[in-house]
């Protein structure tokens, strides 16, 4: 029996094996997170995180899946993407800081 698809900790949708996916360091490598905890995300969700937050913000305030989901822009994105199929791809908007 095949294992179920992992769940994306940002949008809470399954990540199909054939969907683009990324490993996200909860504390960015440049901020001391090399070898630290990571999570598997849809690639589109990972891109949205880095389009929204700086490495410093990620290290200081958004270093857990719960904190990422609580960020207003990421929460809005997660609500939007949750209505799309798990393999959905789209361009990520430009950085807004």
TrEMBL record:
UniProt key word Hydrolase: yes
All residue ranges annotated as the HNH domain in the record: 8-51
Protein origin, superkingdom: Bacteria
Protein name, per record: HNH endonuclease
Family annotation (InterPro entries): HNH
Species in which this protein is naturally found: Aliishimia ponticola
Keyword entries, A-Z: Endonuclease, Hydrolase, Nuclease
Keyword Nuclease: yes
Pfam families (alphabetical): HNH
Gene Ontology molecular functions: endonuclease activity; nucleic acid binding; zinc ion binding
PANTHER family named in the record: HNH DOMAIN-CONTAINING PROTEIN, TUDOR DOMAIN-CONTAINING PROTEIN
Record lineage: Bacteria, Pseudomonadati, Pseudomonadota, Alphaproteobacteria, Rhodobacterales
């Amino acid at each position: 029996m095949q294992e179920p698809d992992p769940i994306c900790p940002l949008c809470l949708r399954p990540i199909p094996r054939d969907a683009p996916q990324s490993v996200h360091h909860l504390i960015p490598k440049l901020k001391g997170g090399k070898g630290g905890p990571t999570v598997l995300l849809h690639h589109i969700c990972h891109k949205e995180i880095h389009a929204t937050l700086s490495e410093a913000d990620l290290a200081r305030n958004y270093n857990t899946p719960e904190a990422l989901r609580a960020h207003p822009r990421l929460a809005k994105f997660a609500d939007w993407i949750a209505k799309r199929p798990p393999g959905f791809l789209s361009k990520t908007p430009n950085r807004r800081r």
